[in-house]
Design brief:
The chain is of the alpha/beta class and 477 residues long. The protein has helices spanning 31-49, 65-74, 78-95, 111-123, 152-157, 199-209, 223-238, 269-275, 278-286, 298-324, 335-353, 358-377, 383-403, 410-420, 427-442, 446-458; strands spanning 15-24, 53-61, 127-130, 133-136, 173-178, 193-195, 213-219, 243-249, 252-254, 257-258, 294-295, 461-465, 470-474. It folds into three domains: 15-275, HUPs (Rossmann fold, 3-Layer(aba) Sandwich); 297-410, Up-down Bundle (Four Helix Bundle (Hemerythrin (Met), subunit A)), CATH 1.20.120.640; 423-474, no CATH class. It contains 16 helices and 13 strands. The strands form four sheets. The chain has a four-stranded parallel beta sheet with strand order 2-1-7-8, sandwiched between helices. A four-stranded antiparallel beta sheet has the order 3-4-5-6, with helices on one face. The longest helix has 27 residues, at 298-324. The protein binds one RNA strand of 75 nucleotides through strand 1, helix 1, helix 5, helix 7 and strand 10.
Length: 477
RNA sequence: GGCGGCGUACCCAAGUGGCAAGGGAGAGGUCUGCAAAACCUUUAUUCAGCGGUUCGAAUCCGCUCGCCGCCUCCA
């Protein structure tokens, strides 16, 4: 609310109530929707990891102008559209590792609550009805504009709002809209109609989280008018502060411009997942701070893929070491690794405590990766060395668990890459080629061995010769 | 016009008062039959520019330039 970072202290100690604006189910989701979902998924996971009991509500708007328009165009009822795109949404989210919210209410299941809130606002003098519509009277709320830091005069003078002559002010916004011919409707004290955009969040958040709660989130483009109006309604209705911390994520940009439906410069999640592994997309979204804009490009996604590959390569190396390390105690150069291991969790917590700095956290992960690689390069052996390496891999997995990345085995990662890169080669064929090459290598027929490697490389497969075996992986990037 | 944000190496990016994380790319090296991976060295005496505050600023203040967002549906 202050527009600054503040120390976090929930209204009820140990419990966090969080409401995040979900989607309007009228079309498939693009990467911008994914960012918002991933950001709040991380916030929830981290708060839980820190021991808070989190109640997360994420609504789905299943009735609004765009849904109605789409339904009319496809000649189906609005609920068919809403259902279809809600299902698509869940499919996308699951791919990206975004968990379900605790409560995922639909607007149309809460018409009664909304009507009650609207009636209350009328009774308190904050709203008025007009030919079956009901409007919130912005001028009645002195603090209107405090979230988006706008004042009413500026808004009025700059108003590009379509003027409805009968509204008392052009800024007054609809709580209830009378239905036109052929539109879906619900019975109300003001006649047949449907709810305005903002009222569902007011009604549903108070139903599930109470009049005041801790965190309200959504994309930065929702600050005005949506969240401003939502807060106006809620505070006018309850007389209590609505939300303690507003959290808004920044945009995805394409050529520096906001990715959006209206500009048409968007990429759907589905499209992107045809070219990139889901984990790559999630990782990419964590490489910049959640409030910063993040530029979408193939270069960025490719770099994310390379980073993840570096992680899994190291995991493989760790696994090999644990399987083959001898029992003779040989310490290796472990000082730097031990130092970092000791400090690692604090560093991670510090970064995440500071407004969920995932980019910084990822940096620490790669510092640790380098240190463990250095340690392994020093050819240690024995149980102490193993323990250090085990501790490292547990730490890495633990952090990965909080961010919900790095949770595959390297084999799963490479299989997944094979699929997404459409490499037409079965694992069986691949192993056959490798065996063939091993024969050649045994016979020191280097030309033949190199030919096989070259052949596979052309298909996107990299071979790595180890002590007695040859491992394969998919070329990242 | 009002409000808000951003500008850090070749690219991405963290850092918001005490000698500039991390990833990618480039160059050289170690290792290897050759590779790959990994590691090492190297690439910002400097953080858009100009002033100011301070023992000390990328970090605070002021101005200038450039880019973007919101003010209308939008994650």
């Amino acid at each position: 609310m202050s527009g600054k970072k503040e120390d976090f202290a929930p209204l009820v100690p140990g419990k966090v109530r969080m409401y995040v604006c979900g989607i309007t189910a009228y079309d498939v989701c693009h990467l911008g929707h994914a960012r918002s979902a991933v950001v709040f998924d991380i916030i929830k996971r981290y708060l839980r990891y820190k021991g808070f009991e989190v109640t997360h509500v994420r609504n789905i708007t299943d009735i609004d102008d765009k849904i109605i328009a789409r339904a009319a165009k496809e000649n189906v009822t609005y609920d068919v559209i809403a259902k279809k795109y809600t299902d698509e949404y869940y499919r996308d989210m699951e791919m990206l590792g975004v968990g379900r919210a605790d409560l995922e209410p639909n607007a149309t299941d809460h018409i009664r609550e909304m009507i009650k809130t609207i009636q209350g606002l009328i009774d308190k003098g904050f709203a008025y009805s007009l030919n079956g519509d009901v409007y919130f009277e912005v001028g009645k709320l002195r603090e209107y504009g405090k979230l988006s830091k706008k004042n009413i005069e500026d808004l009025v003078s700059g108003a590009r709002v379509e003027v409805n002559e009968r509204k008392r002010s052009p800024l007054d916004f609809a709580l209830w809209k009378a239905s036109k011919e052929g539109e879906p409707w619900w019975e109300s004290p003001w006649g047949k109609g449907r709810p305005g955009w903002h009222i569902e969040c007011t009604a549903m958040s108070s139903k599930y989280l109470g009049d005041s709660f801790d965190i309200h989130g959504g994309g930065a483009d929702l600050i005005f008018p949506h969240h401003e109006n939502e807060m106006a309604q809620s505070e006018a209705y309850t007389g209590k502060p609505f939300v303690k911390y507003w959290v808004h994520n920044g945009f995805i940009t394409v050529d520096k411009e906001k990715m959006s439906k209206s500009l048409g410069n968007f990429f759907t999640i589905k499209e992107i997942l045809e070219k990139y592994e889901p984990e790559v997309v999630r990782y990419f979204l964590l490489t910049a701070h959640y409030r910063s804009p993040i530029e979408f490009s193939d270069v960025q996604l490719t770099e994310a893929e390379l980073s993840i590959d570096r992680y899994y390569s190291t995991v493989t190396r760790i696994k090999d070491f644990l399987e083959t390390a001898g029992t003779t105690e040989k310490p290796g150069t472990s000082a730097d690794l031990e130092k970092l291991l000791a400090a690692f969790k604090d560093k991670f917590h510090h970064a995440m405590n500071d407004d969920f700095n995932t980019a910084s956290s990822l940096g620490f992960i790669f510092e640790l990766i380098r240190e463990v690689n250095r340690f392994l390069d020093s050819k240690p052996s024995g149980n102490n060395a193993k323990e250090l390496v085990i501790k490292t891999s547990e730490l890495l997995a633990g952090i990965g668990g909080v961010l919900n990345i790095f949770n595959k085995t390297p084999e799963e990662w490479y299989r997944s890459l094979m699929k997404v890169k459409k490499i037409e080669l079965s694992e069986e064929e691949l192993l056959q080629k490798i065996a063939q090459r091993q024969e050649a290598r045994k016979a020191k027929d280097w030309a033949c061995a190199d030919a096989v490697r070259k052949e596979l490389e052309a298909k996107g497969i990299i071979l790595e010769d180890k002590k007695d075996v040859t491992a394969w992986k998919v070329k990242a990037g």
